[in-house]
């Protein structure tokens, strides 16, 4: 821009992105003694707090409250006249969401002057960034932590306000009368169940054969039956196009048999995943080798990219796009960026076992090594919640657990569908990280009556198959 003098900075570490990974990276680099700068394009507040895990859980909590109020007959409790005030539901959601976002901004505001720069950054070369024509930054190492954005498939383009993504869903003033959702993964299924419980007519369309990230066939079948009882669920279906239809949208799709179908809804939600925000960085100028999806080649232990003293963390690397991984990767990347800047050796900690949760009711968790029916060296054990004591007491006796171990009895991973599996999954992830065996775990008691007994039952099943006892 004519007449504008570009500010010049020389730093040890430049962190691009002020989300969960970027904040963790900046903190770690500074703690390691590096002179670090944090570049934020906005809107900030982290994906989790602003448009991800926190607002979605607030919507789920509202849906669960409505469902619980309508489901008391099992216990001999009669409740009538349950109504849902859509604007009030969304008002509380946004108020609580804004509290979470404000706490993030408070942390950023506490950073020393001169350590934050607002604007979009792009690489000039392997040691230089330009921030929106305002500043030129020379760095010794950089961290890419630019996050991700919702994917909008081509058939849904051009719908204007009729199209929702997780970036816009939580801003609507009232619940829609009906909602079509493209995607039966974690986000799609969570939103679908919550909306259905709040009185919205929901249709979910997905080209795949699984829901909520499950791959173990028996659990996946149960999940399809459970969720399909609350809203219209169409798997093996493909959206062909969508168009405005009065105040709503008309979605044309084909079912599993290839037959044309039409769904009309007030709004449509794209829940087909998120893609890394990398397109505007000019990674090639930095000398990075860019692979599938525009993601640079990088080492999954050290997070160092091939070709330059640049690291990548969080959703930007498209590896494990969940908050705890973003925070962990950010800390690793920041510390290693400081090491590179000081010509020290970088650390390459072993990745933690994979860990994903879906906060539906029943909940879903996928932990460790994925289901592999072709692996003949695995032993699979399981249990069913239908007759599990605590689950029956609470009226939540749906779903089950499947765990797999090697022939020595060392646990490898598992999938869960049931009550309180967010807690059972944490126990399992600790077990996997420690390399424990089912025999050692079956020797530990589980308090009665708790759902933790279900986890012990699944491990005992493996032990019987390996040891005969």
UniProtKB/TrEMBL annotation:
Alphabetized GO MF terms: flavin adenine dinucleotide binding; NAD(P)H dehydrogenase (quinone) activity
Organism of provenance: Methylobacterium tardum
Cofactor: FAD
The protein, known as: Dihydrolipoyl dehydrogenase
Residues annotated to bind NAD(+): 183-190, 273
Taxonomic superkingdom: Bacteria
Family annotation (Pfam families): Pyr_redox_2, Pyr_redox_dim
Occurrences of domain Pyridine nucleotide-disulphide oxidoreductase dimerisation (ranges): 357-458
Similarity field: Belongs to the class-I pyridine nucleotide-disulfide oxidoreductase family.
UniProt keyword Repressor, yes or no: no
Domain FAD/NAD(P)-binding, residue spans: 12-330
Disulfide bonds: 48-53
Cofactor binding notes: Binds 1 FAD per subunit.
SUPFAM superfamilies: FAD/NAD(P)-binding domain, FAD/NAD-linked reductases, dimerisation (C-terminal) domain
Protein keywords: FAD, Flavoprotein, NAD, Nucleotide-binding
Active site positions: 448
